[in-house]
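Internal ticket - ligand job 259, 7PJ:
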Amino acid sequence: MGIVNITPDSFSDGGQRGSPAAGIEHALRLLDQGADVLDIGGESSRPGALPVSVEEELRRVLPVVEALSGRNVPVSVDTCKTRVMREAIAAGAAMINDIGALQGEGALETVADSNVAVCLMHRQGTSQTMQHDPHYEDVVAEVMAFLQARMAAAQAAGIARERLVVDPGFGFGKLLQHNVTLLHHLDQFAGLGVPVLAGLSRKSMLGQITGLDINERLIPSVAAAVIAAMKGARIIRVHDVKATREALQIVNAIEDQGK
Ligand code: 7PJ
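stdout (structure tokens):
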């Protein structure tokens, strides 16, 4: 899954300040590099990021979804706003990637009224508060229990299990030790019975381990992607599609061989 950020503070849009045209260009580049799915986001969810209005998020995201929906690639939209979900689905999105796990008002119903897939992600707190004082007794058990509860809520709302994806939400209200423990035990999440998505690309946990700056985290990101894939993640959300794809070809060859 290639990341297409259409946000002014994005580190991958070449400083285009939230321009849909730059987003489309970036998306096409990631497709060239071999992305199987694109994740379009118009609101930064990095720690401390400021919220974006619905209108501004729609202005950023919709033209990109529309431009890509004619092509043969599934488009995911990274949003926690119900109206953005609804309009993105109408514009041809194939998946909603909600870091709020459909807890917003009307979110469950909006997705249930469609046939798109949905990624349910765990986070503790909001973008503003999540890194203040994350606390867990047992991070794996707590994140698993949350995802199980959201899977049940989604199914009760009429979203078939086949449409669900789960994600432990690396970096979302988690300290380094929590992120490391979650990655170490990622294989347990496959036991939830739906595909697992992992997003580790360029994240601060990789900087905390290596001391490398955000623009220097390609190799740590690829290493983390390989570990996640070997522990059963089925969708890997990354900025660096070409390098990750090359590494995952090796993982796939070895995993296939072992069967
Ligand atoms: C994730 C995400 C993630 C899912 C972001 C960043 C922060 N969606 N959106 N999982 N991260 N499902 O890319 O650093 O880990 S935005």
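Auto-summary: The chain has a mean pLDDT of 94. The CA atoms of residues 199 and 210 lie 18 Å apart.
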